[in-house]
Amino acid sequence: MNKNWRWLPAGIVPAVIVAASVSGTAVAEAQPQLPAKTAQELLEFVATGSDEAYSGTVEQESNLGLPDIGMATPPGGTSSSDPTSMALELLTGEHTARVFVDGPDRARVQVLDELAERDVIVNENEIWSYDSRANEARHVVLPDKDAVKAELETKLQENAAKHPELQDLPRTPAELAETFLAKIDPDTAVTVSGTSRVADRSAYELLLTPEDPSTLIGSISVSVDSETGVPLGVAVQAKGQEDAAFEAGFSDVDFAAPDAGLFEFTPPAGATVTEAPTADELETELKAKTEGKTGENTQSLPAGSPEKPTVVGEGWSTIVELPIGSAGLMGLKPGSDPDAGMGEIMEIEPGMDPEDIAGAQAMLDQALTEVDGGRALQTALASVLITDDGRVLVGAVGIDQLIAASQQ
Amino acid sequence: MLSEITVLFRRLRTWAMIGALALIPVLIAVVVRVSSDGSGSGRGPAFLNSITQNGLFVSLTALTVAIPLFLPLTIGVVAGDTIAGEANLGTLRYLLVAPAGRIRLLLVKYAGAALFCFVATLTVVVTGGIIGALLFPVGPVTLLSGDTVGIAGYFVRLLLLALYVTVSLLGLSAIGLFISTLTTIPVGAMAATAALAAVAQILGALPQLEWLHPWLFTNYWLGFADLLREPIVWTSFADNALLQAGYIAVFGTLAYGRFSTKDILS
Predict the structure, then answer these.
(1) Residue A127 located in a structural domain
(2) Signal among the record's keywords (chain A) (predicted)?
(3) Cβ of A269 and B140 within 8 Å?
(4) Does the residue A207 lie in any domain?
(5) Most buried residue, A145, A275, A306, B258, by CB count within 10 Å?
(6) In whole angstroms, what is the distance from residue A323 CA to residue A320 CA?
(7) Are residues A252 and A307 both part of a single domain?
(8) CB atoms within 10 A of CB A94
(9) Residue A53 is part of which domain span?
């Protein structure tokens, strides 16, 4: 008796599953047909989209050629609370976040980590951030928006006589779009390159292509929702790299007003709450700091140092040069002794395991390469050069150009 | 069906495994209680630091600890034993002499394993809640998003959590059932199932194999945290269910193919 047909389902089921998953991705690729728009029209459309309310999930992925900083911090670690390493961590690797937006004044972003979450909640003039791993909340009160606007307006009126060109500040979306286009026109080609589907919605693709041969940035494309004008995705292409160097976009989006309760945040019991200083307090603090000790060991970046960063070049190949001493300020030790590293890029806290610090340090040391006159970090989109005399040069150009700029 | 379940839950081994699972939260709670001196070191599994402030977190910590190793191990034992155990005892052919049919036997065995998944998970969650409430203060629970929910809301989420973990383990149960049809030595099937769970998790930890990750049955195991966000992220629940359904379909049909064609000699 032949019983082999009983194996049939076991062969069919995997085939069906594979077919279903393949056809699922193929359907999503189809390009929608949309009425044509010029770049100017599309930009105006984006500017009008800022009042929309929506919520959705954003997926972000980057291929910068940097070591994954997320791997250096232990799962239970706490170093992510300081802004520099958090920004670095968010720039490398992959992340999923949920975004809730209700007009220009209220928004909430949730970065979904494994067994943890980081939240930023903006509600009118209050900003809360919360890190579930460290159970820390941070609260910032912004100056009242209308008051600031009124103040700016009066200042503008006062100075109108002296600077007549200030009257031409863009006010409407159309003017904004025009100004933006005029500003970036000389070295950037702005086109509407076509349409695409993002998060099951049809979108226009706005493509910015630098015409500057020396920059590392190949092109930047922005997907704009065809119905609301809300940007649904951004992709930055590096020259000579097939995959996008940085990519972020909605994987699903819902244009319904999110629950208002989401924007109300009360820090949970037991959380460490830090009140950020208001603008006035910050100013006095900064003054005290600069008077007390200029130069070395100041925690903040060159704001407190006597020299201002200089800017070399313009447009896409702009290089920012931080003056002598800034490397030390940031905790970078110039020179090529074995001790040199990025000590304070990851804020070292007393509670941290020395092994973790050493591990992260070694990883960053590995990323830095020895070059003529300093040490450099090359990523797909930007380069950083730390010269032996302690200057830091940053730009979206190759390392050789940074070296040339440093020797001028 | 009913008799199968009573047999499963009348076994000493089943109760020993449930007891061992119940021991996890108890152990965690007692250790934290004894060593608690108010200093959160920031190390160890997620939620561990929150226990001293709120005893309800014992369930979560225990679940995080149990998912990678203890739960797959016990599921491996139960699922691996389903067919091979009967074969080993020599009772399989008597079961098939009755006009029950092989498909029905497979289904009943699988249902029993699935029920065990739920009971095992629920055990961890419930004992965690009880021991936590006994040893630590209990209050409104802070979610990952920083919002708080009341105790009633928290228990709804815990129930969902137990459901999520149960669903997560269904794929593994199906694999165990299939392996169990291949052999007459239950220990081999148990070990193979538990080892597969470990292998899948190791593969899931390697960033070089990223393309493979969405296909691993362990991929969403720690996704239960999505139920602790405000609002709840349902996508991982749905993705997980779909993935596990795929595993059940593939290994269920494989088990059927094997079991319905093989000659039962014992």
Answers:
(1) yes
(2) yes
(3) yes
(4) yes
(5) B258
(6) 10
(7) no
(8) 13
(9) 39-263
Whether a cis peptide bond, with omega within 30° of 0, leads into A186 is: no
- State the DSSP string of A218-242: EEEEEEEETTT--EEEEEEEETT-S
Of B47, B225, B250, which is closest to A14 when you measure between CB atoms?
B250
The count of structural domains within chain A is 2
- Kindly state whether B212 is in contact with chain A, defined as any CB-CB distance less than 8 angstroms: no
With tokens 């490397």, the residue in question is A327
Minimal CA–CA distance to B64: which of B9, B121, B12, B140? B121
Query: Cα separation of A309 and A291, whole Å?
Result: 20
Domain end position, chosen among A244, A263, A282: A263
Say yes or no: A56 contacts chain B, CB-CB below 8 A: no
Report yes or no: B184 and B87 within 8 Å, Cβ to Cβ. Answer: yes
Q: Last residue of some domain: A210, A242, A263?
A: A263
How many angstroms away from the CA of A342 is the closest CA of chain B?
A: 23
User: Could you give the 3-state DSSP secondary structure of residue B259?
Assistant: helix
> Domain check: are A101 and A229 in the same one?
yes
Model ipTM?
A: 0.77
Give the Cα separation of A395 and A216 in Å (integer).
9
pLDDT digits (tens, 9 = 90+) for A28-81: 566 778 888 888 888 888 888 777 889 999 988 888 776 555 444 444 344 444
Per residue in A225-265, pLDDT tens?
Answer: 988 888 898 888 888 787 888 888 898 899 988 888 889 88
* Domain co-membership, A192 together with A307: no
Interchain CB contact of B261 with A (< 8 Å)? yes
Residues of B in contact with A266 (CB under 8 A): 147-148
How many Cβ pairs closer than 8 A exist between chain A and B? 101
Tokens of A373: 């006159």
